[in-house]
Design brief:
flat; about 100 residues; mainly alpha
């Protein structure tokens, strides 16, 4: 009865606020900083310029947003791209099949 089960949230203690890595916070900080800079430089009285100014913070916020079964949206998108871009046709190389040409 000396079984040890690792709790599901064991890795959360390694994250900042239990949700973010350092890279996530840097990425989001760059997005917010760029948004603040654009808010100062663009005429935000017009709705199109206001939307353009807010896009960096919205996009980086979306990328670091936590989702179930994945770490965040950034890893979900990377997994989806890796799935569709990598080879999905697996070649059998088992112990019962010779490699290369079949012997006659």
């Amino acid at each position: 009865m000396n079984n040890y089960l690792i709790p599901a949230n064991a890795k959360k203690s390694m994250l900042i606020l239990g949700l973010f890595t350092t890279f996530d916070l840097i990425l989001f900080g760059i997005g917010v900083g760029l948004t603040l800079l654009l808010l100062l430089l663009l005429p935000v009285e017009q709705i199109t310029f206001a939307i353009i100014a807010l896009l960096p913070a919205l996009i980086t916020g979306f990328l670091v947003m936590p989702v179930p079964n994945y770490y965040n949206m950034r890893t979900l998108i990377a997994s989806a791209i890796g799935f569709y871009m990598n080879q999905r046709k697996f070649k059998w190389k088992g112990w019962c099949f010779p490699h290369g040409e079949e012997k006659k």
